[in-house]
Amino acid sequence: MNNLLQMPLTEAVKAVKSKKVSAVELTRASLGRIAECKELNNFITVCAESALAAAAEADKKIALGGDPGPLAGVPVAVKDNISTKGIRTTCASKFLQNYVPPFDASVVTALRNAGASIVGKTNMDEFAMGSGSENSYFGAVKNFRERSRVAGGSSGGSANAVAACEVFAALGSDTGGSIRQPAAYCGVAGLKPTYSLVSRYGLIAFASSLDQIGPLGRTVRDCALMLDVLAFADPRDSTSVPRPQKTYSDFVPRVKGKRIGIAKEFFPDTLNADVRKRLNAAVAALEGAGAVVKETSIKSFNAALATYYVLSSAEAASNLARFDGIKYGYSDRSGDGLTDIYFKSRTGGFGDEVKRRIMTGNYVLSSGYYDAYYLKASKVRTLIKREYEDALRDCDALICPTAPSSAFKAGKKTSDHTQVYLEDVYTVPVNIAGLPALSVPCGTDGGGMPIGMQLIGKAFDEKNLFELAGAFEEITGGNADV
Amino acid sequence: MYEMTLGLEIHCELKTESKIFCGCRNEFGGEPNTHCCPVCSGFPGVMPVLNEKAVEYTVRTGLALNCEISRYSKWDRKNYFYPDLPKAWQTSQYDLPLCKGGFVEYELDGKIKTVRINRIHLEEDAGKLLHEGGVSRIDYNRSGVPLMEIVTEPDLHSEAEAVAFLDGLKSVLKYIGVSDVKMQEGSLRCDVNLSVAKPGQKLGTRTETKNLNSFSAVKRSILFEYDRQCGVLNAGGTITQETRRWDDNKSVGYSMRGKEDAHDYRYFPEPDLMPVVLSGEKIEEIRKAIPRLKKERIAIYTEKLGLPLYDARILTADKDIADLFEGTAAVFKNPKKASNYIMSEIMRKGKREGSEDVEIGVSPAALAEILTLIDSGVISLAASKDVLDAVWNGAESPLAAVERLGLRQNSDSGELESAVKEVIAANASAAEQYKAGNQKVAAFLVGQVMKATKGKSNPKLVGELIEKLLKTN
């Protein structure tokens, strides 16, 4: 591997801007590394030509003394459920394997305007439904550190590509933990921004009230630099709002005096011993550096998973109904008439997990069951939101594991679906509450696999999370090194 | 004898500039799929952005129909599969519509009647399927056009009431400027819920006949369904709750789906749109912008402009006609003459075969000019029809048309006198009768002169000349 690829994104941008290295050179190195790591299956589509063109454009601007933008032609990757004009966007589904969007997602436009070189579209769980990036029509993602293990999901390709230094940063999407859990499994940093901080226009929706696009990077500051590009009020997304901070990447690491909340429900007796040990050590290190640790409680903790699977499946059933075999994507017209087109196209075009969620979602919305499921879950959602907000009133961040364990063995959990759902226990409440959360590496387990620590903040308080996580990174020296 | 009870659901396309959730043009017609974008054709990843004008128009309607306006309303997804619905859900309003309650007054046989309004909500229209030669195609031009649904209470009891109510409602919608209300273009469509019961008994089971797009179809489908339900009951049967369609060509209704096949729309709140929150000030602002309605205009026409009630009613039946009248009368200061001309010439000319609407192809300024030309004797009333034809939907001014067509009437008494003399000579017996005191032949003689001069003579002057010449002879 070309050593240049190991720089953090922030350093790579500086190196390009100061002409120590050209953006084209970095992009070539990135494309070379992607080819080398083909076996990991991180990419569904590699777009060498357009990436090199964007890099060359940045180099040209620099040569002419102009501004190449905050990402200066540095190679990044985009999850394959985020629309890219002229580049197929599959959601890792057979249904969309040949779908080429006629427009860019707003975040992709932002990346292009920032001068980024988008080298490819990353593999994922089909329609972002899964925790291992194994539910992909294009095959499973293999963890870069240990190929027999999963990379996490659903943004497994993005997290793994960042960990393997194929790119300097990547975009993921997070509906119930899909950025943070793969970040934890791959040993990188991943941010799920506050709901409505980043535009969702062009993100192929899974559950619209929970989905957020966010960055994955090898350092906390890399994530902050990406957020500088990603956060803006988008006139195409009515739920998006102006960001409260002018810049995120200029944060100063700070831990002294910060109040950290630990809910007792986060650490049940059954918790994996390595995870407990690493988290305890991390909290102790922060306390040692001047943080104030407070015990708190989130009583609704165990209600979050059920609430999440009711709400997210309901929205997914509706969002995925447009894939009907009529307008675009997979279409099976071997049958007789309209109903057959619907039936055969959806039967043949979707994978099992997607079908399970669609069926669950339609069930909880159907007449006679709506009150017992969807309506009840909506009410519990309000309670969960309130409880997290209350807990955060007295502290700057809640800290818990990102996932109950390190990366699990490939193929192990594909047969037990509810076991896979438990992977999301720490991450889903954050989406339900609409809050920001950052996962950072906090050491490894006995088998050398990374463990992630999740910092949950107040709404729009991303900068505070960066300060705290940045300080933690300094204390530990980071362990995201390859 | 059974009494019928009717409740209507009226779908009305709003005439906003752009569609409800994207910037595409809201315009009838156009080549298929030329007024659409990724948003209104439901591409993956798109999101809606609300057109506030559509909300304003719906609130304006609610205010005109005496409704309570919701300070807080929201959007819901109505989920069902159909190829004309690109997202497979229609963005609509389920439990919190923009307007609630209200009533409409309408007139039937000289009596004022009232229909209560249950609710008015806003939603998006679907695309259109085109079936041709065994192939079905989809046109998304209409997809995302703002569609307002007005739901009445079951307050109507005859087909005549239904049509009179619709006519009254249509007039209001047109007056307040929210819709073209062109039934033949589908901008106003109606579903009819109908049940029958013996007087004094509780309402029977209802059926719903969907998508009626002319007054005639509304009327005929009601009569058909009433007869059908009475027939079933008289034969000892029971009415099944069902959704029905009306075949306008064959004039028959038929069952589309029964209650057991009714869609389960799985409504839930639309997460991609914020709720609509309206302040009291905003509602007042919308109220102030409502144009004058029919009732007010009739009062002005009769009280201030001195028109007979009969005229005022005819002129205000259609907003375009009323606007033309007001614009004309503002320049041409003889309202009665303007009214007469509009009621005769304009309404004759603007009437379209098979349509309830009157098309107007002349501006108030041009019409005032024509009336002034007639009034000052430059052209005859007969010639004005040719002028109207010439300027209709065109750019030529009436005066230019008069000159181009040589319609300026002859008011030169010397020239006219010789023409009158010729007519008198050719019609000696009529002239004799006139001299003998038979005044009736005067009109005949005037007509002969007009004929001889190809309508270009001033008939008043001709009459005077005939009198002068025959008396002095």
Main pleated-sheet profile of chain B: 10 strands, mixed
Q: Note poorly predicted spans of chain B.
A: none
CATH class of the domain at 3-230 in chain A: Alpha Beta
First CA to last CA of chain A: what distance?
A: 11 Å
Overview of this protein structure:
The complex is a heterodimer of chains A (482) and B (473). Chain A is of the alpha/beta class. Chain A has a domain at 3-230: Amidase signature (AS) enzymes (Alpha-Beta Complex), CATH 3.90.1300. Chain A has 15 helices and 11 strands. Chain A has helices at residues 9-17, 23-36, 48-63, 106-113, 156-163, 180-186, 220-230, 273-288, 304-319, 338-349, 352-365, 371-393, 417-421, 428-433, 462-476, and strands at 43-46, 75-79, 117-122, 169-174, 189-192, 212-217, 259-263, 292-296, 397-401, 437-444, 450-456. An 11-stranded mixed beta sheet of chain A has the order 1-3-2-4-6-5-10-11-9-7-8, with helices on both faces. Chain A is globular, with a radius of gyration of 21 Å. The mean pLDDT of chain A is 95. Chain B is α+β, with helices and mostly antiparallel strands and 473 residues long. Chain B folds into 3 domains: 3-283, no CATH class; 292-405, no CATH class; 413-472, Arc Repressor Mutant, subunit A (Orthogonal Bundle), CATH 1.10.10.410. Chain B has helices at residues 52-64, 159-175, 215-234, 280-288, 294-303, 309-316, 319-331, 335-350, 364-375, 381-391, 398-405, 413-426, 428-435, 441-452, 459-472, and strands spanning 3-13, 68-69, 72-73, 76-79, 89-92, 99-100, 103-108, 111-124, 128-132, 135-139, 146-152, 188-197, 207-212, 242-247, 252-258, 268-269, 276-277. In chain B, the strands form 4 sheets. In chain B, strands 1, 2, 6, 7, 8, 11, 12, 13, 14 and 15 form a 10-stranded mixed beta sheet that branches. Chain B has a 3-stranded antiparallel beta sheet with strand order 5-4-16, with no helix packed on it. The radius of gyration of chain B is 29 Å and the shape is elongated.
